[in-house]
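Thread: quick sanity check before group meeting

JM: Hey all, I'm pulling together slides for Thursday and realized we never actually wrote out the predicted structure for the chain we discussed last week. Dropping the sequence here so it's in one place. If anyone has concerns about the input, flag it before I start.
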Amino acid sequence: MYEKRRSERLAQENEITIKIVSKGKLPLNKKIIYQLSKDISSSGTRVQTNAFLPIDTLLKIQLALKQPPRMITALGKVKWVKSLYADESFEAGLEFINTSSETIELLADYISQAQDKGIS
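JM (edit): ok, ran it. Output follows.
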Protein backbone atom coordinates (compact mmCIF):
# COMPACT_ATOMS: atom_id res chain seq x y z
CA MET A 1 0.00 0.00 0.00
CA TYR A 2 1.32 3.45 -0.94
CA GLU A 3 2.00 5.72 2.05
CA LYS A 4 0.80 9.27 1.37
CA ARG A 5 2.02 10.81 4.63
CA ARG A 6 4.76 13.36 4.22
CA SER A 7 5.87 13.61 7.83
CA GLU A 8 6.24 11.49 10.93
CA ARG A 9 3.18 11.10 13.17
CA LEU A 10 2.90 11.07 16.95
CA ALA A 11 0.14 8.80 18.28
CA GLN A 12 -1.19 11.13 20.98
CA GLU A 13 -4.69 12.25 21.92
CA ASN A 14 -5.10 16.01 22.32
CA GLU A 15 -8.12 18.20 22.85
CA ILE A 16 -9.07 20.06 19.70
CA THR A 17 -11.59 22.79 18.87
CA ILE A 18 -12.80 23.00 15.30
CA LYS A 19 -14.66 25.84 13.57
CA ILE A 20 -15.94 25.40 10.04
CA VAL A 21 -14.75 28.28 7.86
CA SER A 22 -15.55 27.08 4.32
CA LYS A 23 -18.75 27.59 2.44
CA GLY A 24 -20.86 24.54 1.77
CA LYS A 25 -23.67 22.57 3.33
CA LEU A 26 -22.59 23.26 6.91
CA PRO A 27 -23.07 26.70 8.54
CA LEU A 28 -19.99 28.88 8.86
CA ASN A 29 -18.33 29.23 12.28
CA LYS A 30 -20.16 26.19 13.61
CA LYS A 31 -18.29 24.97 16.66
CA ILE A 32 -18.09 21.21 16.91
CA ILE A 33 -17.91 19.61 20.35
CA TYR A 34 -16.58 16.25 21.59
CA GLN A 35 -13.45 16.05 19.54
CA LEU A 36 -9.96 14.68 20.03
CA SER A 37 -6.97 14.49 17.78
CA LYS A 38 -5.86 10.87 17.57
CA ASP A 39 -2.42 11.55 16.13
CA ILE A 40 -0.54 14.59 14.87
CA SER A 41 2.23 15.47 12.46
CA SER A 42 3.65 18.70 11.14
CA SER A 43 1.43 18.31 8.06
CA GLY A 44 -1.89 17.22 9.59
CA THR A 45 -3.89 15.37 12.21
CA ARG A 46 -6.46 12.61 12.54
CA VAL A 47 -9.49 13.65 14.59
CA GLN A 48 -12.46 11.94 16.17
CA THR A 49 -15.62 14.05 16.21
CA ASN A 50 -19.36 13.84 16.71
CA ALA A 51 -20.13 15.62 13.43
CA PHE A 52 -19.67 14.58 9.81
CA LEU A 53 -17.12 16.79 8.05
CA PRO A 54 -17.37 16.64 4.24
CA ILE A 55 -14.16 16.20 2.25
CA ASP A 56 -12.52 19.55 1.30
CA THR A 57 -14.21 21.42 4.18
CA LEU A 58 -11.92 24.16 5.51
CA LEU A 59 -11.52 24.33 9.27
CA LYS A 60 -9.91 26.57 11.85
CA ILE A 61 -8.23 24.23 14.33
CA GLN A 62 -7.08 24.96 17.88
CA LEU A 63 -5.01 22.06 19.17
CA ALA A 64 -3.98 21.82 22.84
CA LEU A 65 -0.61 20.06 23.03
CA LYS A 66 0.31 18.25 26.26
CA GLN A 67 4.01 18.35 27.19
CA PRO A 68 4.93 21.15 27.37
CA PRO A 69 1.40 22.58 27.31
CA ARG A 70 0.79 24.94 24.41
CA MET A 71 -1.97 25.91 22.00
CA ILE A 72 -1.54 25.60 18.23
CA THR A 73 -3.86 27.35 15.77
CA ALA A 74 -3.91 26.18 12.16
CA LEU A 75 -6.10 26.06 9.08
CA GLY A 76 -6.97 22.56 7.96
CA LYS A 77 -8.68 20.82 5.08
CA VAL A 78 -10.60 17.55 5.40
CA LYS A 79 -8.88 14.92 3.22
CA TRP A 80 -10.88 11.82 4.25
CA VAL A 81 -13.71 10.86 6.61
CA LYS A 82 -15.21 7.61 7.89
CA SER A 83 -18.08 6.70 10.17
CA LEU A 84 -17.05 4.95 13.39
CA TYR A 85 -20.40 4.24 15.01
CA ALA A 86 -23.84 4.43 13.40
CA ASP A 87 -23.15 7.86 11.89
CA GLU A 88 -22.83 9.34 15.39
CA SER A 89 -19.05 9.30 15.66
CA PHE A 90 -16.57 10.00 12.87
CA GLU A 91 -12.86 10.01 12.16
CA ALA A 92 -11.36 12.48 9.69
CA GLY A 93 -7.92 13.18 8.31
CA LEU A 94 -7.04 16.87 8.23
CA GLU A 95 -4.21 18.41 6.24
CA PHE A 96 -2.76 21.68 7.55
CA ILE A 97 -2.88 24.36 4.85
CA ASN A 98 -1.84 28.02 4.81
CA THR A 99 -0.23 27.48 8.20
CA SER A 100 2.77 29.56 9.19
CA SER A 101 6.23 28.03 8.93
CA GLU A 102 6.71 28.85 12.63
CA THR A 103 3.69 26.72 13.57
CA ILE A 104 4.84 23.84 11.33
CA GLU A 105 8.33 24.01 12.87
CA LEU A 106 6.87 24.12 16.40
CA LEU A 107 4.81 21.00 15.67
CA ALA A 108 7.81 19.17 14.19
CA ASP A 109 9.92 20.05 17.26
CA TYR A 110 7.12 19.02 19.62
CA ILE A 111 6.72 15.63 17.88
CA SER A 112 10.46 15.02 17.84
CA GLN A 113 10.84 15.85 21.55
CA ALA A 114 7.81 13.73 22.53
CA GLN A 115 9.16 10.75 20.61
CA ASP A 116 12.62 11.17 22.16
CA LYS A 117 11.01 11.17 25.63
CA GLY A 118 8.62 8.32 24.82
CA ILE A 119 5.56 10.53 25.47
CA SER A 120 2.25 9.55 23.89
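AS: nice. The CA atoms of residues 80 and 93 lie 5 Å apart. The chain is about 15% helix and 45% strand.
JM: adding both to the slides.
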